[in-house]
């Protein structure tokens, strides 16, 4: 049976369980998200700052996810604001990007990044992001899309037990032509 090309569409409430199933598989394989234990994964989709999120769907199955977050302040935005010269209110965080393991290197991650990045200017914002320094696939993807490194961030999360250190690169999307 032929499989259809994945379609990117806005995420709905009804997608929550399927997104969590997919993230659980990604977490087991890639260790992403870096700072969460499996039991904490449901909270990953409950950001108060999520302004939009999209899923990729293939034959009725969720195979990818990406979001844009617009927090009023955030350490990543502070680094990106300095590098871009734009205030936080003119930036949007590309976040929660992941693709089903069986569809890797088929261009879906690139399509999701492009989709989310293209939305930010419609809000008067430029897309930026942070990425774990231990995630080479994601770093390669962003750099292949022309994103440039804005700086780095070392977070010490002491509300976790045990506390967690996160070493991140901050990237900015290509400036509008
Ligand atoms: C990062 C991720 C989303 C990439 O998704 P993907 O669908 O495999 O990426 P694409 O097929 O669109 O790849 C686009 C380009 O990125 C680069 N790239 C992606 N994966 C790569 C890898 N494993 N090694 C080297 N380059 C890679 C390549 O330049 C690739 O182009 P090419 O295949 O023509 O050479 C996916 O690996 C993933 O879900 N990883 C786990 C979650 C994660 O790390 N999320 C990022 C959070 S910041």
What is the CATH homology-level superfamily?
Gcn5-related N-acetyltransferase (GNAT)
Q: Characterize the biggest β-sheet.
A: 7 strands, mixed
Task: Spell out the helices and strands N to C.
Answer: EHEEHEHEHEE
Taken together, the total number of domains comes to: 1
Unique bound compounds: coenzyme A
Oligomer state of the chains in this structure: single chain
The 3D shape can be described as globular
- The helix content, as a percent range, equals 25-40%
The CATH class name reads: Alpha Beta
Rg from C-alpha positions? 16 Å
Question: What does this protein look like?
Answer:
- The chain has 177 residues and is of the alpha+beta class.
- The chain has a single domain (7-172), classed as Aminopeptidase (3-Layer(aba) Sandwich), CATH 3.40.630.
- 26% of the residues lie in helices and 32% in strands.
- It is built from 4 helices and 7 strands; from the N terminus they run βαββαβαβαββ.
- It has helices spanning 16-30, 75-84, 108-119, 136-144; strands at 7-10, 50-58, 61-69, 91-99, 126-132, 148-157, 164-172.
- A 7-stranded mixed β-sheet has the order 1-2-3-4-5-7-6, with helices on both faces.
- The chain starts with 6 loop residues before the first strand and ends in a 5-residue tail after the last strand.
- Coenzyme A binds at residues 26, 30, 32, 97-99, 104-110, 131, 135, 137-138, 140-141, 144.
